[in-house]
Amino acid sequence: MKFFMTVILALLSMSTSVMAAEHVIGQKNKAFTKKSITIKKGDTIKFPNQDPFFHNVYSMSESKSFDLGSYAKGVSKSVKFDKQGEVIVQCAIHPFMKLKVKVE
Amino acid sequence: MRLWIFLPLLAICIESAAEAPFSTDELRELRKQWLLPAPTLHPQHKQLSELGKKIFFDTNLSIDKSTSCASCHIPELGWSDGKPTAQGLVGKPLKRATPSIINTAYSKVLMWDGRADSLEQQALMPFFDPLEMGLNEKLLIAKIASNQEYPNLFERAFGDSAIDSARISSALAEFQRSITASNTRFDRWLKGDESALNNEEILGFKLFIDPQKAACAVCHHPPNFTDDGFHNIGLSKQKPEDLGRYRFTPIPLMKRAFKTPSLRLATRTAPYFHDGSAKTLLEVIEHYQEVSVQKHNFSPSLLPVNLNKEEKEKLLAFLNSLE
Ligand SMILES: [Cu+2]
User: Fold this and answer.
1) Taking Cα atoms as reference points, which of A75, A77, A100 lies closest to residue A89?
2) In which band, very low, low, confident or very high, does the pLDDT at B152 lie, cut at 50, 70 and 90?
3) Has the ipTM of the complex gone over 0.90?
4) Which of B182, B212, B276, B277 could bridge to B97 as Cys pair (CB 3.0-4.6 Å)?
5) In angstroms, what is the span from residue B202 Cα to ligand 1's centroid?
6) Nearest CA in chain A to B232
7) Is the minimum CB–CB distance between A69 and chain B shorter than 8 Å?
8) Domain coverage including residue A74
């Protein structure tokens, strides 16, 4: 019985860690590689800069505000989206670079 | 004897071949990057532009009939005004320099702080600014309605002579889209006219795009010499302090950040920068060299610039070829 429980618990914890997915959205040619994305609460998005100049990643949305600073080509930073809602992610340097994240 | 003449000649030939700044393949790539495409125009461009031109030059459209758009965006001065910062109604100084409107057809953001994102959105701002033209919407429309020359122009542009602010901004925007510079000597050289640039200018261009050298193209991107982006390049000794883009995007990176201007025909628009702090293009180059050795919270895109006197002259020669 105890053995059963541990197996179930182990399975459960595995499944939750699988559920918190990591998505990748690059910054390329002065645009995010996607215009919008729908993710689950707890998921992470990784933002690699693929352009040969600096970009920034920030958001001032109510459910998630953050500023990853600016970084060069080849560098990547991540953000965990831990609340439901709509988050507009932008590059402050190039304000026309916009990504809509829907967190379900 | 003959050999003596021939040998140095041969040496010169070999040397200049080795010095050819760009290979044919590189040139093809540069052409793809830097040549401006034709701007996207409204189907009614011609008629809208005709109306827009009339409005742009109409001094009656200001509170004291003194000022039109062209009072500050003066065609003969590269559609700027030659002043360090603009002069508003009754000589009142504005806090920023008048930018040129050349090639704004390609702009994704307008104004030094990016507070407008289309020419249409920008076009009414000067009318309603109490320091620039001092009108309100009602006055603007009444003034246009009082001029017999307008109904016809509105009718040709829109099918009827009704006047409203959306039509005014659309006409002004379309007129400004016709003010482009895409055939500078640099452009002619890109298109294959080898005599359009001399060797010094070509080497200056090479320095301009080389991230190890002048590193200008890190921000002044092809094809319009701008990334439509915002950077703090270490100016702003002005008081009171002008925070620039930070007002709209309050994150540290945007403090004192301003929009990267395009550079075609910059030869005509001295003085330079949003505060008019550089009198010549050489002073601009000196600024980048000085600022890049300072350790401050400036744009991370400012790479170290270390040009000797000769290189500065080449870079300057290149900037002057954007004419
Ligand atoms: Cu960016």
Assistant:
1) A100
2) very high
3) no
4) B276
5) 29
6) A93
7) yes
8) 21-103
